Input
Amino acid sequence: MNNIKEFFYKFFYFYLNNPKFFFEIITLFTISILLKIYYPKFRGFMGEFWVRIELSKLPKSKYIVLNDIMIYYNNKTCQIDHIVVSNFGIFVIETKNYYGLIKGNKYDNKWYQYLGRTRNSFLNPIHQNYGHIRALSNLLKLDEKYFISIICFSNQAKLKVNCKDEITHLDFLKSEILKFKDINFNYDINELANIINYNNITDRKARRKHIIDIHTKIKNDNELLNNMICPKCGNQLVERNGKNGTFIGCSKFPKCKYTKNRL
Ligand SMILES: [Zn+2]
Output
């Protein structure tokens, strides 16, 4: 016990006599904590940055590049990393700045990233990007066939996916886009880009507000449910008996089909 005490005293006095060393340790410690917290964000930011650089190399007269677009679709926000509007089609690009081994199938819900022994799952980016295309097709009143989905992985990612046509590495992104010459539609690309820009939620406050709105809606719905009020139509909720036991339904059934399992 005394030995341990002695050790701590020595340790403590060493630091007192070497304030510079002490300061360096604290600094290193702080930096490592900050890195741990902000590194994923930083990686994401850098990933989008490199894609922006690559896209800026496209001939500006034929390709209009739009970055970080957020639009409303079905009362939800939809964030799109990059859109390239051209007369060869509208390219919708989702950036995945992942490293390690990436495995996935075109129709699976989840894809996996393998880092040594750990496996992380993420949403199938093809599905995710298809949602973006639907939102844009709805906004521009343009058929989905004019949209080209591209998932852009960082060069460090090793890809084992069975849908090569939609997936690319950062280094090949530009050539991948330039490859498309089949679609030739006579829309004014400046006008299309203007529509997207006009509908882009740019205001930081508005972007944040929308996220808060989603949270408030969930909170309000819960409050209404606690008071047995239908969140869909505002009428009274009642307890009903069904095949699988009791559940809560709207008193205005069949006009309103709101149901919920017993809380
Ligand atoms: Zn109702």
About this structure: The domain at 44-206 is CATH 3.40.1350 (Trna Endonuclease; Chain: A, domain 1).
